[in-house]
Design a protein that fits this description.
CATH superfamily of the largest domain: Nitrogenase molybdenum iron protein domain
Strand content: 15-25%
Helix content: 40-55%
CATH class of the largest domain: Alpha Beta
Distance between the termini: 51 Å
Number of strands: 14
Strand order of the largest sheet: 1-12-11-10-13-14
Largest sheet: 6 strands, parallel
CATH topology of the largest domain: Rossmann fold
């Protein structure tokens, strides 16, 4: 049992200086989070109050076919709304009336703010309160912002989950709450591992249905599965829940440390922990070793995009043998990301926020073997001879916990293997 991890007490990057920059940024819109959230909440509908551009973004991101009926849509703000010539609240009421009359399966309705609705100061919180009184108890109406004006794309999920916490019922039950939207198969793996250790009850936010037994109180402890949930973290603590700070479950080491912190909280002994985790840990190590052959000794540069950057840098440097040159994140919340910083060896530049031109200059000067960035930067950097990985792919792909550890390493090694094959083709 000596190899069971405990967090290091010194030697990491937690206290290292952070380069903070504010300038032009390259990020996706927070509305993107609807694409994975609407798949998790089976009786919810996401109504974006926005423009035709918002509608086109969601349609393109989801790949919705013409005969499908998704659980999201856009209430289009027309020129008369934007010019203040129509009462946008009245128009919104009409749209919601029509929607709920046609879709009687909806139990949760999210009014989602966008750049256009925020520019005209449309008060969606007031609309949600008014509609809740009208449609309760059959439909719960909440609101959050998915605007990309001041946020990065994963903050859409954070805003959504944070909006749900204040209306959760109160409970005095001792329970574990897992917070963050995961693919169903990954969520099932996590809950299974915890249940095998005797930990329970285990509940998940977001729950698949509004009538689930999800609740929160002072006896609730919660573990985040995603590092971008700062607002949700704050809302849960306001309700009296207590956060289990842990590295995020990326790779074998991160997953084991995440599980270990929860196991310690619930008094699980080392023998039980070893029995439950030994086999999947071994599989994860083997898969990572095979997938990371082309990563060892290579350098990586992270542009700020998804807020997954610091846990991923920890995974790549400690488990895949890479060297991190710069690790940029939109926001660095040490109360959430601190355990990963403790495990990330000193050396890389840590940057928060972005001045994209200055960061591009640093990247070009460093010439990393792999650059992790958004879609808007990837093609130009590829044209300059730099290998890139799309940051958004790391959010849409199952990458958490043991069984996905090899796939996670493979996402990073694939661009380098592709470049090697292309070079062979050129030489041939």
């Amino acid at each position: 049992m000596n190899d069971l991890p405990r967090l290091p007490t010194s030697g990491g990057c937690r206290d290292e200086p952070i380069l903070k920059q504010r300038g032009q940024r390259e990020v996706f819109c927070g509305l993107t989070g609807i694409i994975w959230l609407h798949r998790k909440m089976q009786d919810a509908f996401f109504l974006v109050i926005g423009s035709r551009t918002c509608a086109h973004l969601l349609q393109s991101a989801a790949g919705v076919m013409i005969f499908a009926e998704p659980r999201f849509g856009t209430a289009i703000l027309e020129e008369t709304d934007l010019a203040g010539l129509a009462d946008a609240q009245t128009e919104l009421d009409k749209v919601v009336d029509q929607l709920l009359a046609r879709r009687t399966d909806i139990r949760q309705l999210f009014l989602v703010g966008s750049c256009p609705s925020e520019v005209i100061k449309l008060d969606l919180s007031r609309a949600a309160e008014r509609m809740t009184e009208k449609y309760a108890p059959s439909v719960r109406v909440l609101n959050f912002s998915g605007s990309g004006i001041e946020t990065t794309f994963t903050q859409g999920e954070d805003a959504c989950l944070a909006s749900m916490v204040p209306v959760l019922p109160e409970t005095n039950e001792r329970q574990l709450l897992l917070v963050g939207a995961l693919p169903d198969v990954v969520e099932e793996q996590a809950v299974s591992l915890l249940t095998q250790m005797g930990i329970g009850p285990v509940r998940v936010l977001p729950a698949p249905r509004a009538d689930s037994d999800l609740s929160v109180g002072t006896e609730t402890v919660f573990a985040l599965t995603q590092p971008f949930l700062g607002d949700t973290h704050a809302e849960l603590e306001r309700r009296g829940a207590r956060h289990i700070a842990a590295p995020f479950p990326f790779g074998e080491e991160g997953t084991t440390a995440w599980l270990r912190m929860i196991a310690d909280e619930f008094g699980v002994d080392d023998a039980t922990f070893e029995r439950v985790t030994a086999a999947p840990r071994a599989r994860a190590r083997k898969a990572i070793a095979q997938a990371s052959v082309s990563l060892r000794g290579k350098s990586v540069f992270f542009f700020p995009d998804s807020q997954l950057e610091i846990p991923l840098a920890r995974f790549l440097t400690r488990e895949c043998g890479m060297q991190a040159i710069e690790v940029g994140a939109p926001f660095i919340h040490k109360g959430i990301i601190g355990p990963d910083l403790d495990m990330l060896a000193q050396g890389p530049v840590l940057s928060e926020g972005q001045d994209v031109d200055l960061q591009l200059d640093r990247c070009r000067a460093a010439r990393p073997d792999l650059t992790v960035c958004g879609l808007g930067l990837a093609n130009p950097l590829e044209a300059e001879g730099l290998s890139t990985k799309w940051a958004i792919e790391l959010v849409f792909t199952p990458v958490h916990f043991y069984e996905q550890a090899g796939d996670l390493a493979g996402l990073f090694s694939r661009p380098l293997r592709r470049d090697d094959l292309l070079q062979l083709g050129v030489r041939a």
